[in-house]
C-alpha cells in the first residue's frame, strides 16, 4: 500500500483515468447494446475494435503520416483524426454487421440455445484475430503523432494534453448522441421495444431483424471511434489489441449494469479510475486484480450492476 | 431411416453386444498412442493418403493433452451442462490443482527453498488428493458468495476469479514464482525394470488419464442419475419453479460448482505430473474459453458430448498442423510484394474458429447433444421464439 | 447415445498399405535432405517475439539451398506458442524425426525447461537464440547451447552503464514480469543499490495503457528508466511517456534492440534511447543480412533474427562439413569458434552451453536518426 504515491499524483491519475475510462465506455456500449437486445455477450466485439484500430492507421497512411513523420499542423491533424473516425467507424460497423449476419443470424433462424451464440462469437473472434495476426506478421505498428503534446491547461498541477481533452470530448459527444438516438428517435424506440419484449414488439410491427442489425452497427460505430482514440493514446496497434481491452470494456459494461447505456458509460469511467488509483496504490502489476475485486465486491451488493438493467427489463 | 436409427442406438442393443462394443472401444483407446497402431489409421483418397494422426506433433502427447482437456470439459459440463451456470474461468481450478502439486513435489518449490515449510518434496500421489481438495475448497469459496448472481453476471465473476489466480501466479516474488515457474515437478510413481514408468514419454500418462476419465465418467453419471442430477436439471430449466417445488437451489448449485472444481483440479494435478514444469503462462483466459467451447461444441449436458468436444478442440488444431504436408499446400503467398504466411500451422486457429461457427450453425445443440435436453429446447421453441 | 449415426463410423478407416506412411525411413547417404528445426512461439500472442528468429533461420537455409541445389536442407517448424504445456509433445515429435539433426530454440526459458530435457535424451543439439534464464545451463544438458549472453551478463552491464557512464543519480526500474524482463532488472538492481532506485513498477505483456506507470515515473522525478522487457510494450510505454512530456532516457536490454522499437515509437520520441546488446560493433557491418531479410520478408529484421540467422549458419556449416548426425553436430558446436556475420557475436561455447564469458562483450547502442548506433563497449566492472 502506497498511499503517499496516490495522494501525490491524485490529479494526474484522475485525468488519465478519465481518458482511459472514456475509451472503455465507448467499447462497453457495443457490449451493452447487443446484450440489451439479444441477451448475448458478443465476444467478437473486441475484434470489431481491433479492426477499427487498423482502419484508422490505414487512413493516416493515406495522409502520408506514419510514426516517423513530423507532427502535422493542427488543421491537418484534426482533419486526419476526423477522417480516421469516419473510416474506422464505418469499417468497424461493417465488421460488426458481418459478424451478426454470418455468425448470429443463422443461429437465430434455427432457434439455437443462448450458449451456442457464445461459441460462434468465440469462433468469429478467433478467425478475425488470427487472420489479422497473419496479415500483419504479428508485429506492432506505430501510430503517427498528431495532436501537439503541449498541455492545454492544468488541473491541480497536472497538465492536461490536447489528446486527453479530444478523447473525452468526443466520447461524451458520442455518448450523448447515442443516448438521444435511443431515447428520442423512432429507430431508438424500436430498439427499446425489442429489448423490453421481442415478441410484443414484433406484433406491434417492429422489424426485429432490422433492429438487431442496427444495434450491431451502432456498437461497431462506437468501437470504431474508440479505436481511433486508443490508437492516438497508446501510440500503436497490434493484432491482439482487442483482447484485453474487450475484456475490460465488458467488465465495465457489467459494472454499470449490462444492457444499460448510461451504466456502460459510468462503468467505463469507474473502471478507468479504479485501475489508475490501484496501480498507484499497489503497483501496476496488481491493477487488474484490484479492478476485478472491485467488480466482484460491487456485484455482491448490487447483483445487476450499478444502474441495473434498464434498456430491457431483466428477464427471469 | 429413423426406425433403423432407433434400433441402432447403443441403449437399444442387447446387453452382450453393448458390453462387447464398449470393451472394443476401450481396447482401441488404449492402443491408440502406439505408433505401430495409429500410423495405419487414415483415409485413402485415391491420389493421396490422409493420415489421421498428427504428423507434426507427437501423437501420444496430443492424446494426453486431449485427456486432460476432456477431464476439464467433464467437470465444466457438470457446471454448465447440468446446472446451467455459465463459468468463464474454469481454468482457475485447473491452476489450483496444478500449482498445489508443483509446490508440494518440486525440490525447487519456494515452500522448501524459502519458507522451509517442507523438509523434502512430497510424492506426487500424496499431493494429488490435496490438490483436489483445495480445488474443491476454491470452488466452494468462490461459489458461496457469487452463486446468488444470475447468468452473465456469474460469468464475469468466474472470469475475474481465473484472472485473479493468474495475476497472483504471475508475481515473481510470490510463492508461485511467476513466469520463471516451478521446475522438476514430481511424476507419478511406478517403475518397469528399474526405469521409472512415468518420465518423458507421454504414453503412460495418457493411459493413466484414460483410467481416471473412466472413473470420473462413472461417478458423474451416477450423480447425474441421482436426486442431485434431477435437482440440477430442474434448476437449469427454471430456477424459480425449482425453488418453489422445494429444491434447495443454492445448495445444489454449490454442489455442482464444487464437483466441477474438484474434477478441474484433478485434471490440473495430472497435467502437472506430466508437465515437469509449471509457470504462469499456461493459465491464460484463452484456455478457459477453449474448455467452454469444448463443452458446447460437443453438446452441453451430455457426458459423451463433453468427451467428444474435449477431444476435438485439441485434435483439430493439432491435426491441421500437418494437413499442409498432405496436400502439398504452399507455406506462403506473395501478394503485391508482401509475403504472407498461409500455412495451416499458423492459420489453424482461424480454421478452428470457422469450424466452431459452422458446427454451431448446423448443430446448435452441439455435435452430440443430450436427447432429453434437446427435446426440452424443442418444446420451448413453441412457447417463445427468441430473437426472430 | 447414438453411435452409428452420421460420420462417426466412417472416420476411422484403416489405411491400406505401409507405403502410405508419412515418414518411410530408408538408408542411403544421410547428408542430404537433413532438417533443421525451429522451436518457439510462431502463432498466438508471443509470436511477435519469435517469428523474426524463425525468419532468420528460414533465410539462412534458403541461402544455403540456393548454393547447394543438389543437397538441400529443410526447415521444420515447431510452433509451441511459447507455452511450456505445448512444448513436451512437440519436442518428443522433433526427437523422433531422425532427419532433424539440429534445433534452433526453444525461444523462451519456460518452454526450454520442458523441451531441452527431451532433446537431451534424444541427443539433439539445440541452440537457443533468445532464452536467457541463467539456470538453464546448470541442468546438466549436454545439448544445450545459448547463442546470447544470459541475464547475468546483460543486466549488470546495463546497470553499470547507467551508473558509471550516464552518471544518473536516480533510476526508475520497471520490468514486464516475464522471466526475461525480471531477470534483467533483478540483476541490475544489485548493481544500482537501494539509494539510486527512485521507484519500481511492473508492466505486463499485452498491456497497452501505461498511464499509471507514466504518472509514477513523472512524479518520482527520475530522468533514467531501466526497462526490462520487450519492444511490444517498451515502444508504447516510451511513446506515452513522451506524450506526457517526459524528457529522460529509457535504457533497455536486447529485448528492445530491434527496428520495431524505432519504427513503432517514432524517430522523434525514441531518439537517445539506449539498448544494450551482448554483441560487438561489427554488428554495424551486418553484411547483407538486413537487406536480404527485408527482401525476403518485406519487413525489417526484429530482435533475435540476426542471432538465429547466425546460429542456423553454424549448423549449416557443420552439415556442409559432412557432420550428418546429431552427435557429430553437437561435437562440432563444442569446438566452434567464429564470429557470426549478422550479429557480430563470437560463438564459442563452454561445456555448460554458455557462451565463453571472454567472448561476451556488452555494447550500448543509441537510437539516433532512425537507427541503432553503437555507442561504446560497457566496461566489465
UniProtKB/TrEMBL annotation, chain A:
Q: What is its main location?
A: membrane
UniProt entry tagged with the keyword Transmembrane = yes
According to its UniProt entry, one GO biological process term is: L-isoleucine import across plasma membrane
CDD domains listed in its UniProt record? TM_PBP1_LivH_like
- Per the record, the domain of life is Bacteria
Q: What is the protein's membrane topology class?
A: Multi-pass membrane protein
Tell me the leader sequence span.
none
PANTHER family cross-referenced by the UniProt entry? BRANCHED-CHAIN AMINO ACID TRANSPORT SYSTEM PERMEASE PROTEIN LIVH (PTHR11795), HIGH-AFFINITY BRANCHED-CHAIN AMINO ACID TRANSPORT SYSTEM PERMEASE PROTEIN LIVH (PTHR11795:SF371)
KW Glycoprotein (keyword) present:
no
The text of the family note is: Belongs to the binding-protein-dependent transport system permease family. LivHM subfamily.
Q: Where in the cell is it found?
A: Cell membrane
Return the InterPro entries for the record.
Answer: ABC_transp_permease, BCAA_transport_permease
Keywords on record: Amino-acid transport, Cell inner membrane, Cell membrane, Membrane, Transmembrane, Transmembrane helix, Transport
Record-level GO cellular component terms: plasma membrane
Q: Which GO terms describe its molecular function?
A: L-isoleucine transmembrane transporter activity; L-leucine transmembrane transporter activity; L-phenylalanine transmembrane transporter activity; L-valine transmembrane transporter activity
| Name of the protein | Branched-chain amino acid ABC transporter permease
Name the residues that span the membrane.
22-41, 48-65, 77-103, 115-135, 155-182, 211-229, 241-258, 265-283, 289-308
From TrEMBL, chain B:
Q: Which keywords describe this protein according to UniProt?
A: Cell membrane, Membrane, Transmembrane, Transmembrane helix
Mind telling me which Pfam families this protein's record contains? BPD_transp_2
* Topology of this chain in the membrane: Multi-pass membrane protein
**Cited CDD domains:** TM_PBP1_LivM_like
Subcellular localization(s) per the UniProt record: Cell membrane
Q: Which GO terms describe its cellular component?
A: plasma membrane
**Matches recorded under InterPro entries:** ABC_transp_permease, LivM-like
Q: Which GO terms describe its molecular function?
A: branched-chain amino acid transmembrane transporter activity
Q: Where are the transmembrane segments?
A: 21-38, 58-78, 85-104, 124-144, 205-224, 289-316, 346-363
Q: What is this protein called?
A: High-affinity branched-chain amino acid ABC transporter (LivM)
Amino acid at each position: 500500500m502506497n498511499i503517499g504515491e496516490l495522494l501525490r499524483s491524485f490529479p494526474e491519475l484522475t485525468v488519465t483515468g478519465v481518458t482511459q475510462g472514456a475509451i472503455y465506455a465507448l467499447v462497453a456500449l457495443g457490449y451493452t447494446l447487443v446484450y440489451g437486445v439479444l441477451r448475448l455477450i458478443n465476444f467478437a466485439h473486441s475484434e470489431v475494435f481491433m479492426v477499427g484500430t487498423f482502419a484508422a492507421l490505414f487512413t493516416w497512411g493515406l495522409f502520408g503520416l506514419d510514426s516517423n513523420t513530423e507532427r502535422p499542423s493542427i488543421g491537418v491533424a484534426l482533419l486526419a483524426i476526423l477522417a480516421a473516425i469516419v473510416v474506422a467507424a464505418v469499417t468497424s460497423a461493417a465488421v460488426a454487421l458481418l459478424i451478426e449476419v454470418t455468425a448470429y443470424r443463422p443461429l437465430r433462424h434455427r432457434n439455437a440455445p443462448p450458449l451456442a451464440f457464445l461459441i460462434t462469437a468465440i469462433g468469429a473472434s478467433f478467425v478475425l484475430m488470427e487472420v489479422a495476426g497473419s496479415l500483419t506478421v504479428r508485429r506492432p505498428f506505430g501510430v503517427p503523432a498528431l495532436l501537439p503534446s503541449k498541455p492545454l491547461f492544468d488541473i491541480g498541477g497536472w497538465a492536461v494534453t490536447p489528446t486527453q481533452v479530444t478523447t473525452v470530448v468526443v466520447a461524451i459527444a458520442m455518448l450523448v448522441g447515442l443516448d438521444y438516438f435511443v431515447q428520442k428517435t423512432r429507430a431508438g424506440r424500436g430498439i427499446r421495444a425489442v429489448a423490453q419484449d421481442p415478441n410484443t414488439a414484433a406484433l406491434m410491427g417492429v422489424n426485429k431483424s432490422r433492429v438487431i442489425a442496427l444495434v450491431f452497427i451502432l456498437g461497431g460505430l462506437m468501437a470504431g471511434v474508440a479505436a481511433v482514440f486508443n490508437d492516438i493514446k497508446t501510440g500503436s496497434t497490434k493484432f491482439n489489441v482487442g483482447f484485453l481491452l474487450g475484456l475490460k470494456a465488458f467488465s465495465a459494461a457489467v459494472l454499470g449494469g449490462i444492457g444499460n447505456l448510461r451504466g456502460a458509460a459510468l462503468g467505463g469511467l469507474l473502471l478507468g479510475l479504479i485501475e489508475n488509483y490501484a496501480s498507484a496504490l499497489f503497483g501496476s502489476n496488481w491493477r487488474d486484480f484490484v479492478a476485478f475485486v472491485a467488480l466482484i465486491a460491487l456485484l455482491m451488493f448490487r447483483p445487476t450492476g450499478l444502474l441495473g438493467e434498464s434498456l430491457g427489463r431483466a428477464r427471469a | 431411416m429413423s426406425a433403423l436409427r432407433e434400433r441402432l442406438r447403443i441403449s437399444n442393443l442387447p446387453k452382450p453386444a453393448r458390453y462387447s462394443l464398449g470393451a472394443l472401444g476401450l481396447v482401441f483407446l488404449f492402443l491408440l498412442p502406439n505408433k505401430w497402431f495409429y500410423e495405419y489409421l487414415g483415409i485413402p483418397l485415391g491420389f493421396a493418403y490422409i493420415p489421421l494422426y498428427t504428423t507434426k506433433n507427437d501423437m501420444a502427447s496430443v492424446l494426453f493433452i486431449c485427456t486432460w482437456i476432456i477431464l476439464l470439459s467433464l467437470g465444466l459440463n457438470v457446471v454448465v451442462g447440468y446446472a446451467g451456470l455459465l463459468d468463464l474461468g474454469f481454468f482457475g481450478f485447473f491452476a489450483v490443482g496444478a500449482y498445489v502439486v508443483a509446490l508440494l513435489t518440486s525440490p525447487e518449490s519456494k515452500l522448501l527453498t524459502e519458507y522451509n515449510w517442507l523438509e523434502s518434496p512430497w510424492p506426487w500421489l500424496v499431493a494429488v488428493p490435496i490438490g483436489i481438495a483445495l480445488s474443491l475448497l476454491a470452488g466452494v469459496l468462490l461459489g458461496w458468495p457469487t452463486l446468488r448472481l444470475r447468468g452473465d453476471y456469474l460469468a464475469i465473476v468466474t472470469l475475474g476469479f481465473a484472472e485473479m489466480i493468474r495475476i497472483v501466479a504471475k508475481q515473481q516474488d510470490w510463492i508461485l514464482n511467476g513466469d520463471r515457474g516451478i521446475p522438476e515437478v514430481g511424476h507419478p510413481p511406478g517403475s518397469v525394470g528399474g526405469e521409472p514408468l512415468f518420465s518423458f514419454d507421454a504414453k503412460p500418462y495418457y493411459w493413466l488419464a484414460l483410467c481416471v476419465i473412466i472413473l470420473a465418467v462413472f461417478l458423474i453419471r451416477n450423480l447425474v442419475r441421482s436426486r442431485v442430477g434431477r435437482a440440477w436439471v430442474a434448476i437449469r430449466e427454471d430456477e424459480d419453479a425449482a425453488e418453489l417445488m422445494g429444491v434447495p437451489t443454492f445448495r445444489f448449485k454449490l454442489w455442482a460448482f464444487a464437483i466441477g472444481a474438484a474434477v478441474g483440479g484433478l485434471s490440473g494435478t495430472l497435467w502437472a505430473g506430466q508437465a515437469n514444469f509449471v509457470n504462469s503462462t499456461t493459465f491464460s483466459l484463452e484456455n478457459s474459453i477453449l474448455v467452454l467451447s469444448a463443452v458446447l461444441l460437443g453438446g452441453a449436458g451430455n457426458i459423451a458430448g463433453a468427451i467428444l468436444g474435449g477431444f476435438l478442440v485439441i485434435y483439430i488444431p493439432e491435426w491441421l498442423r500437418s494437413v499442409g504436408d498432405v496436400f502439398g499446400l504452399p507455406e506462403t503467398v506473395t501478394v503485391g510484394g508482401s509475403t504472407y504466411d498461409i500455412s495451416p500451422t499458423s492459420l489453424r486457429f482461424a480454421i478452428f474458429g470457422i469450424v466452431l461457427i459452422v458446427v454451431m450453425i448446423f448443430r446448435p445443440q452441439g455435435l452430440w447433444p443430450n436427447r432429453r435436453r434437446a427435446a426440452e429446447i424443442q418444446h420451448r421453441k413453441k412457447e417463445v421464439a427468441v430473437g426472430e | 447415445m447414438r453411435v452409428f449415426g452420421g460420420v462417426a463410423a466412417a472416420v476411422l478407416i484403416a489405411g491400406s498399405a505401409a507405403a502410405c506412411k508419412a515418414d518411410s525411413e530408408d538408408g542411403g547417404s544421410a547428408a542430404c535432405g537433413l532438417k533443421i528445426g525451429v522451436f518457439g512461439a510462431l502463432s498466438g500472442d508471443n509470436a511477435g517475439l519469435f517469428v523474426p528468429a524463425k525468419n532468420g533461420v528460414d533465410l539462412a537455409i534458403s541461402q544455403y539451398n540456393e548454393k547447394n541445389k543438389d543437397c538441400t536442407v529443410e526447415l521444420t517448424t515447431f510452433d509451441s506458442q511459447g507455452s511450456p504445456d505445448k512444448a513436451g509433445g512437440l519436442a518428443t515429435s522433433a526427437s523422433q524425426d531422425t532427419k532433424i539433426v539440429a534445433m534452433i530454440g526453444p525461444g523462451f526459458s519456460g518452454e526450454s525447461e520442458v523441451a531441452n530435457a527431451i532433446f537431451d535424451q534424444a541427443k539433439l543439439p539445440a541452440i537457443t537464440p533468445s532464452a536467457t534464464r541463467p539456470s538453464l545451463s546448470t541442468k546438466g544438458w549436454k545439448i544445450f547451447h545459448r547463442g546470447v549472453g544470459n541475464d547475468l551478463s546483460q543486466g549488470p552491464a546495463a546497470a553499470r552503464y547507467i551508473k558509471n557512464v550516464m552518471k544518473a543519480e536516480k533510476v526508475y526500474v520497471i520490468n514486464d514480469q516475464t522471466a526475461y524482463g525480471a531477470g534483467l532488472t533483478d540483476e541490475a538492481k544489485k548493481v544500482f543499490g537501494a539509494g539510486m532506485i527512485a521507484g519500481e513498477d511492473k508492466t505486463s505483456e499485452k498491456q497497452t495503457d501505461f498511464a499509471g506507470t507514466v504518472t509514477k515515473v513523472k512524479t518520482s522525478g527520475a530522468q533514467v528508466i531501466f526497462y526490462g522487457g520487450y519492444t511490444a510494450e517498451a515502444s508504447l510505454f516510451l511513446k506515452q511517456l513522451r506524450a506526457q512530456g517526459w524528457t529522460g532516457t529509457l535504457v533497455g536490454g536486447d529485448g528492445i534492440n530491434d527496428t520495431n522499437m524505432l519504427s513503432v515509437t517514432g524517430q522523434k520520441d525514441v531518439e537517445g534511447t539506449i539498448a544494450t546488446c551482448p554483441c560487438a560493433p561489427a554488428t554495424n557491418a551486418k553484411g547483407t543480412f538486413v537487406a536480404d531479410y527485408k527482401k525476403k520478408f518485406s519487413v525489417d529484421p526484429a530482435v533475435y533474427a540476426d542471432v538465429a540467422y547466425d546460429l542456423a549458419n553454424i549448423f549449416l556449416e557443420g552439415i556442409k562439413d559432412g557432420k550428418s548426425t546429431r552427435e557429430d553436430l553437437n561435437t562440432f558446436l563444442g569446438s566452434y569458434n567464429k564470429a557470426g556475420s549478422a550479429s557480430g557475436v563470437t560463438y564459442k561455447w563452454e561445456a555448460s552451453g554458455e557462451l565463453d564469458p571472454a567472448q561476451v562483450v556488452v555494447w550500448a547502442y543509441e537510437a539516433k536518426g532512425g537507427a541503432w548506433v553503437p555507442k561504446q563497449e560497457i566496461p566489465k566492472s
